[in-house]
Write a structure and sequence with these properties.
The chain is of the alpha/beta class. It is built from 12 helices and 19 strands. The radius of gyration is 22 Å and the shape is globular. It is found in: Endosome, Multivesicular body membrane; Prevacuolar compartment membrane.
Length: 452
C-alpha cells in the first residue's frame, strides 16, 4: 500500500478526486426497507463498512493540492489511495480504499405511508400559512418557512428532534396557464423564468417567436455551453437561492441530517441541492434534472449504492415523463419549454396509464391529485436505478439534436469548438470538467471561469 507522498507526481490529475470522496463519505448507505411508520427513517450503522473501488477521471486542469485529500480523513472517515495508473495525459484510474464509521438515516421508500408523508410535505410548500387551506398535518414540528415575503423561491422546513432530521420542502411552479401547478400569482414570472432556464435545451429558444431567458443561443440548434452554466449559477436564479437556503438551515441545525423534497420545479431544486451536497433527496412529479446537473458539473455516481436521490411520479404526467413539449403540448402553449426528460438517481414510477387507465394529461401533475388517487391508493412500485442517464439498457440522452459549443477565449476568429451529446456505457465514476473552468470548489462545480 502506498502513501499519498508517493504520488505527488500525479497531483495534477487529482482535480476530480474531491467530488468523488465527498460522495463516498456521504453516500455509503445501502438501500434498506423498514415498514414501521412510527420510525419511518431507518438508522443504519456503517461502522464496519469497507469499500474498495477504482475510479476513472478525465482531467482538464491542475488545481488540487494533496492536502485537500488529507483533510477528508477524520475520526469517522479513512480514505486511502492504494494505486494510481495514468493511461494517458488526459485520464487516469485511482483505486480507493474507504472505511467509514458513520451512521446515517435514509427514508424507507418501500413504505406507502413514508412516501405519502414526504409528498404531503411537498404539497405544504405551496401553502403560505401552516395549518390553513390545503395544508397537510404531517407533524406539529414545523419550525420555519422561507421566501414568503419575496416573489421567488419559497417553502417550509420540517424538523424531527427525536431522529435529528430536518427536511427542506421547496415550492414548485405557480402558473395560471398550466394546470396542476400552484396559484401564487406573485411568483409566477420568476417560476416560469427558472423552469425555462433549467429544463430547456437552450434558454427556451424553441423558435424565433419565443423570447429567450438568456443570451446563449448562437445559431440554429447551436448554443453556448459556458453561457448556460453561468446563467444557471447566477445569484438571482433559483438554484443559487436554494443552495443558500440549505446553508442557512444547516447552520441553524448543527448535528442534524438534512433531507430535501419538493414537487415539480421544487422537486428538481431539491434533487440539485441534494446532488450538490450529498444529501437524501426525494422529488415528486419532477421534470428531468439530469440536464441541469450536467451543466452544473455535479457529481453523478454510476453505482446505485451511492445514490440517495429518488424521483417519484406517475406515467400519465407528461412533465414527469418528459413529453410535455412540442408545438401542440400544453406546456408549449403556456410558454414553458419543458424539453428535459432524463432524471438522475432512482425512479419510482406508478403506471397509472396501464393500471388506472388514465390518459396522459398535465392535470395528472397536480400533487393533491397524485397523493389522493395514486400514492394513497396504489402499491409502491419497485425503484429503478437511472443513475446518470446511462444506468439502463436504453440510455437517456438530452437535446440530441443540439450542438453545445465553447467559443475559444481571446480568439479573433468566429471558429468554435463543438461538443456533441453522445451515449457511452461505463461502470466507473466519471467527472467531466469544462475546459473553460479555472477554479472549482470542494464538491466539483466551477466557481471561476476564463473571460471571453
Amino acid at each position: 500500500m502506498k502513501s499519498l507522498g508517493d504520488f505527488k507526481k500525479y497531483r495534477k490529475y487529482l482535480i476530480g478526486l474531491v467530488p468523488i470522496t465527498v460522495i463516498l463519505s456521504t453516500f455509503l448507505i445501502c438501500y434498506t426497507f423498514n415498514g414501521n411508520i412510527q420510525s419511518f427513517m431507518r438508522l443504519q450503522d456503517l461502522q464496519q463498512y469497507n469499500y474498495k473501488k477504482s475510479a476513472q477521471f478525465k482531467i482538464s486542469s491542475a488545481l488540487l493540492e494533496l492536502n485537500s485529500i488529507n483533510a477528508l480523513n477524520t475520526e469517522t472517515n479513512n480514505i486511502i489511495i492504494e494505486e494510481i495508473n495514468s493511461k494517458d495525459e488526459d485520464s487516469l484510474n485511482i483505486k480507493l480504499n474507504y472505511h467509514s464509521k458513520q451512521s446515517a438515516l435514509i427514508p424507507d421508500l418501500s413504505d406507502k405511508e413514508t412516501i405519502v408523508s414526504l409528498a404531503k410535505m411537498s404539497q405544504n410548500a405551496y401553502v403560505r400559512d401552516p395549518f390553513t387551506g390545503d395544508w397537510q398535518n404531517v407533524t406539529d414540528k414545523n419550525d420555519d418557512s422561507f421566501g414568503w415575503d419575496d416573489d421567488s423561491i419559497r417553502g417550509h422546513v420540517f424538523k424531527n428532534d427525536d431522529q435529528r432530521i430536518v427536511i427542506i420542502s421547496y415550492k414548485g411552479t405557480s402558473s395560471k396557464g398550466l394546470p396542476g401547478t400552484g396559484q401564487d400569482s406573485d411568483t409566477i414570472e420568476n417560476d416560469k423564468f427558472n423552469d425555462n432556464l433549467l429544463f430547456s435545451c437552450c434558454c427556451a429558444r424553441v423558435t424565433y417567436l419565443w423570447t429567450p431567458v438568456c443570451d446563449c443561443y448562437i445559431d440554429s440548434f447551436t448554443c453556448n455551453e459556458k453561457c448556460l452554466e453561468q446563467n444557471i449559477r447566477n445569484n438571482s436564479n433559483y438554484y443559487k437561492q436554494s443552495i443558500e437556503i440549505y446553508r442557512q438551515v444547516k447552520k441553524n441545525n448543527p448535528g442534524y441530517q438534512i433531507w430535501t423534497t419538493g414537487h415539480s420545479l421544487g422537486g428538481a431544486l431539491s434533487s440539485l441541492v441534494a446532488r450538490t451536497y450529498g444529501l437524501v433527496g426525494v422529488s415528486f412529479e419532477s421534470p428531468g434534472d439530469l440536464l441541469a446537473s450536467q451543466r452544473l458539473h455535479l457529481p453523478l455516481p454510476y453505482d446505485p449504492d451511492f445514490d440517495m436521490i429518488w424521483h417519484i411520479g406517475n406515467t400519465a404526467d407528461p412533465i414527469y415523463m418528459g413529453t410535455c413539449n412540442g408545438a401542440s403540448s400544453t406546456c408549449n402553449l403556456a410558454g414553458y419549454a419543458m424539453e428535459s426528460r432524463c432524471h438522475s438517481g432512482w425512479e419510482i414510477s406508478y403506471d397509472t396509464v396501464k393500471e388506472l387507465k388514465w390518459s396522459v394529461d398535465v392535470r395528472k401533475h397536480r400533487i393533491k391529485t397524485v397523493i389522493s388517487d395514486v400514492l394513497e391508493e396504489m402499491d409502491v412500485p419497485e425503484p429503478v436505478y437511472i443513475g446518470n442517464g446511462k444506468g439502463t439498457e436504453n440510455p437517456c440522452i438530452e437535446c440530441f439534436d443540439w450542438d453545445f459549443v465553447n467559443p475559444e477565449p481571446e480568439s479573433t476568429t468566429t471558429s468554435v469548438t463543438t461538443t456533441k451529446v453522445t451515449s457511452t456505457l461505463t461502470t466507473s465514476f466519471t467527472t467531466t470538467l469544462s475546459s473553460s473552468c479555472v477554479g472549482r470548489n470542494f464538491v466539483g462545480w466551477c466557481t471561476s471561469y476564463t473571460t471571453f
